[in-house]
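Good morning C.,

I know you're traveling, so I'll keep this short. The sequence:
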Amino acid sequence: MVEARITVNGKETPISPASPHTTALDFLRERGLTGTKEGCAEGECGACSVLVARPGVNRPTDWVAVNACLVPAAALDGQEIVTSEGLATDGGPGKPPTLHPVQEEMAVRGGSQCGYCTPGFVCSMAAEYYRPDRCAHAESDSASGSDSASGSADSTDSEHGPNGFDLHALSGNLCRCTGYRPIRDAAFAVGAPTAEDPLAQRREQSPPAPVATEYTRDGSVFLRKSTLAETLQVLRERPDAVVVAGSTDWGVEVNIRSRRADCVVAVDRLSELRELCVESDSVEIGAALTLTEIERRLDGDVPLLAELFPQFASRLIRNSATLGGNLGTGSPIGDSPPALLALEASVVLADADGEREVPLAEYFTGYRQSVRRPGELIRAVRIPLPLSPTVAFHKIAKRRFDDISSVAVAFALDIEDGTVRRARIGLGGVAATPVRALATEAALEGEPWVTETVAAAAAVLRAEGTPMNDHRASADYRSAMLGQSLLKLYAQTTEAVSS
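The tokens, ready to paste straight into the viewer:
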């Protein structure tokens, strides 16, 4: 087996002597790359952000920002990363390095005070800087006196700059002292990469190919096999193995709860789990595609998922998190299950003996439990077509973005000639598992889509599930929000018709 190595800022670096559980953050800091910081160790602050060369959506390679505090260093074997130190270019003999454009803008616009969070912001900003489909918007309000050169977003909106910069690219980065206005100004002021930019040129070449990894140290092993068949054989022999893709959940367990596993099996680069197929009767999404990849490849073709994605954690997390991982944890407050339940999705489970398809409504059996057997993993999620035309995803949380939901409700309705012909409603946060609101669906189907019907169905919806009291919300609040969610959907649909 070839020695495990990571290309860091253009230089191959052996992973040894790090343990299989050492995070990329600690791996980098131990090698003097201290721009990468630990702030929360949970993927919530972005101080640890680095760039990884990943298969591109519109080009051979995309530079993707990820949380180095969550991903094991061993998971980056054979891959290529760039830290904040690697963004600047050599200024020549006797001269200081030349700042990268995003570093320059952060400096001149006062985007840093203590500087602790700055390298992470810079890496997340650089990923958006190199996004292939980012393009400047035409000036639309020159008469209003807005100055796009100053970084003002008045010509577009508060979350998208005139240079095409999507501010949500920084949604996973926190700053505790500078204030976000100068950081936003810097983001909205960066231009386009030049033809000579080496990282821009790198996008035109293929990313590093996945490599088989068997990294053993201190009695633990990190495995990445070349094929799904080999992986399933390992899981048959080691049913106790922890299966990871983006490590956005397992990384927290390692950091905060000090969990360790004798065997960790990575499935994130398996080609069989990274396909997205749109057929005449279904959409099949590979379990190891990241949420960002799914979002950009579908490009709005599944509207309910398009509503879900911006509300799912942060861009940094979505760059690593997968549907397979979100369903595999079995959490009752995961964001994707309510939407997938409303879409009547099923999961394709695979083991060494073959595959089986299970409706998601039958997949969860208890708190963090499912029908998935030892040795099985989720290969894909299958969504039947055609899709219901009236959809909505309502997430009730203490923060608008990057928060765990208190309640999540997903709707998929067929309303024809003013009558609800079909209703599917998925709920999260109101029971030990994600559930379908079957009683509410029955109360809606066959009834006119009018105030009286919706009010009666909202009363039914408030009684669905078995919500509990915890630090996020009371049971009464959760029940009330269920009913309000249906009333909100009705208001949104009638407003759309009247306008």
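Safe travels,
E.
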